[in-house]
Write a structure and sequence with these properties.
Glycosyl_Hydrlase_16, hydrolase, hydrolase activity, hydrolyzing O-glycosyl compounds, 7-stranded antiparallel sheet, Jelly Rolls, Glycoside hydrolase family 16 protein, 2 domains, Beta-glucanase-like
Length: about 350
């Protein structure tokens, strides 16, 4: 029996960054506001452990005295590539622009802030620019020079998704508010196609986010979501009677993934079988051999035709996990077995 236990330590290990006044600078010097967070907040999608929300400005001084800002939370143990994005109603005209400026607040000097602007319909079309913070615990304006973007601006792309990574390349360390674990079979057991059956009992505490999933084995070469992700089972303690499954791939990732859910009233008190039937033609997710709640037509154009590896973990909070019960002490996911039939 595999047991993964999340434990509350009582300490706060989250690293917070803030940003505001995202501005596009045109050739000739004219400016236009991309987002200032003073109106309706954009719909943020976090990944890798990071979450973002609009809050009251916690340090209305210096270069930024506005009332609302975006807060990016990167917890201890988050992926080094963790970040978040929001979509734009109108694509940015980067061809006739020189730079993008962003007011940022960081707790440290030298933090890498990576800006990625991509086509939300095809995230293989993008550009990236890095900048480094130069002050700690104060607002500053970072300038992202479009002439330094990699790859270069392409006039045929729709640049309508704004992605931001703070502390890119590192994961916070120190005493975490919550500790947990994951186990993965990367470079140990990787496979293509088959019927996967995982028998598990899930944690019930508010804020727990257990997942039984697979990731494309070429992740380290092509990145996410190009490698593909198949989530056999996800569950959140704040919605204890529902389990979901999802497929993430270019054009359908993060908040746009192909997903569905089904009711399992005893998911946290009894063991159930969570199954994926994966072939070259289709991907189906099954609960207890009866409830098929996502069926996907697989084709040669998707990334679901090569080796994947297993990941089992419990996350705490985050975009899907939601608010953590303030009385949380610990909770466990138990996995009886994984079987792969081919």
């Amino acid at each position: 029996m595999l047991k993964i236990t999340a434990i509350g330590s009582g300490d706060n290990g989250n690293v917070l960054h803030y940003y505001d006044d995202v501005t596009l600078v045109a050739i000739g010097g004219g400016t236009s506001t991309i987002e200032d967070f003073e109106g309706t907040a954009p719909a943020f999608t976090g990944f890798g452990g990071t979450s973002t929300e609009v809050i009251d400005n916690p340090d209305a001084s210096g270069e930024n005295t506005t009332s609302k800002v975006a807060q990016s939370t990167k917890p201890v143990g988050a992926e080094v590539w963790a970040g978040s994005f929001f979509d734009l109603d109108t694509p940015l005209d980067l061809v006739n622009s020189t730079s993008i400026s962003i007011k940022t607040w960081s707790p440290a000097v030298g933090a890498v802030v990576r800006l990625k602007i991509e086509d939300k319909g095809d995230n293989t079309k993008f550009l990236e620019i890095d900048a480094n913070t130069t002050v700690a615990n104060a607002w500053e304006t970072l300038t992202f020079d479009l002439s330094a973007a990699a790859p270069a601006v392409d006039p045929t792309f729709n640049y309508d998704r704004f992605v931001l990574f703070f502390d890119f390349g590192v994961s916070p360390t120190g005493d975490a508010a919550y500790t947990s674990a994951r186990i993965k079979s990367e470079n140990l057991y990787e496979f293509t196609y088959g019927r996967v059956e995982i028998r598990a009992k899930l944690p019930s505490a508010g804020g727990t986010w257990p997942a039984l999933w697979t990731l494309g084995a070429n992740f380290d070469e092509v990145g996410w979501p190009t490698c593909g992700e198949m989530d056999i089972m996800e569950h959140v303690g704040n919605n204890p009677n529902v389990v979901s499954s999802a497929l993430h791939y270019p054009g359908n990732s993060g908040g746009s993934a192909v997903t569905s859910s089904t009711s399992v009233p005893t998911a946290t008190s009894e063991f159930h079988n969570y199954t994926m039937e994966w072939t070259a033609d289709s991907i189906k997710f099954v609960v207890d051999d009866e409830l098929i709640h996502t069926s996907f037509a697989n084709t040669t154009d998707t990334p679901f035709n090569s080796d994947f590896f297993f990941i089992m973990n419990i996350a705490m909070g985050g975009t899907l996990g939601g608010s953590i019960d303030p009385a949380f002490t610990e909770d466990t996911m138990e996995v009886d077995y994984i079987r792969v039939y081919q």
